[in-house]
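Ligand: glutamic acid. Inputs:
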Amino acid sequence: MPVVTRIAPSPTGDPHVGTAYVGLFNYALARRHGGRFVLRLEDTDRQRYQADAEHRIASMLEWLGLRPDEGPETGGAHGPYRQSERLSIYRAHAELLIEEGKAYRAFETPEELDAMRREQRQLGKDPGYDGRGRELSEAEQARRAAAGEPHVVRLRAPDEGDTSFLDELRGEVRIPNAEIRDTVLLKSDGYPAYHLAVVVDDHLMGVTHVMRAEEWITSTPIHVLLYQAFGWELPAFVHLPLLRNPDANKTKISKRKMDTSVESYRQQGILPEALLNFLGTMGWSMPDGREVFSLSDMVAAFDPARISLGGPVFDLKRLRHLNARYLRDVLSLEALAERLQPWLAERGLEGADEDYLLDVLDVVRPRAETMLELLDQTEPFLQQRLRYDVDARRRLAAGQAYLEDLERAFAALEWFDDDDVDELLRTYVQRQAVPMGKVMMPLRVALTGTTQAPGVVDLVVIMGKERTLDRIGQALQAISEGLPDDDPERLKAEAEAAAKEAQRAKRGRRPIGATERS
Ligand code: GLU
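Predicted complex:
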């Protein structure tokens, strides 16, 4: 029998890292066994439904490379894959159970149910449906339903005995049936409740392994009762450990404490393969203990039996470190340059000479943890005209004399290789008898507009003679146009404008790198 897995997210907003996590494991299991990976949208909660969320889920899976074999966009033999398009299927299945006496129509009003719960609380009982609707004869149920009276359909859950199932990671889970209420299967608006929809769909879609987050484990006994009521074979159940915040109590990962949005990581420039690799280490590890592994490595080695239950921590620092390893060691320079193209285009920096870009990336990539940082550090190398902030101008002004000397010296230098540039700068600094930084800082600012940049020798060599001279020339011109202390008012206005611009850029940052993975 082929292995069939699925994810069943609800399209209610920003795709969550938890969905990516569960998606990865389901994808890996299906691929490992040459089976099918299904995407089903659980969109029956119309209050929380968001129209664009469906597209965002599809785009997240595409970006991560977790392409479903069947789903709303892909199609497939077991559709439709949106629950809202399967209402008649759920209704037919609910009716089947009613006919067999395994479910019934219940007509209590919300007020009546409230009163019931109040009474239960007063008597010190756990509030919950007490099965009072079971008393109504089948004929009476049918008559009231035909008369258009609002009602729900409830499962007739057994009162005696236990319900148990095998959780692949935890072993047998058993609960007394007395704890399971007559749960709602079909709501009064004709929409299915989660329990009915999930069981009917998993069965009809041929799902063999239900692998989902741990928080659903308490629902599984109800599902088991439904499988039994329909006379269907149970799938295997695997409940994945919840991702935890890196706080002392290791609480469940939540938006309040942690960035849980996949889109946000994408915008910051976390690579899809680094995010997958990171998620792949949540409760799972490669048999050989390797920390860096690709999706296909994971697929080839995937075995759910190796999932451990010790609360995996979603540690952002680790994610960034892992991403840095991809930028630095895993991707070739050429691949990195290609990945950076859409980011460069966003800032109007496309079309750079390829060899030059590769040289630049070679020196900046050890200093970046994300694509955004890589972009920020690459930008000054590619800009035609640099903008100097207040601090940069001050540093330039302080080094004016050195810059003038160095402009002449570089103009006369024949070979722009590491040794010659290094030698020139070293001798010059010695002759001036000043600390190294006094000369290097203004030069660094002249070449890049910033004080944070790789070693100056690297900068000069990569930029080459023409660019180096052009930049020193621009810097000297900026100095002569206005020394920083000339006009404090202007400097203040400039600083304010720059801060505003930075704020705007932050707010208006759009998803980028849509073509990153092909
Ligand atoms: N719609 C549920 C969710 O959002 C699916 C739970 C399940 O996989 O059964 O996670």
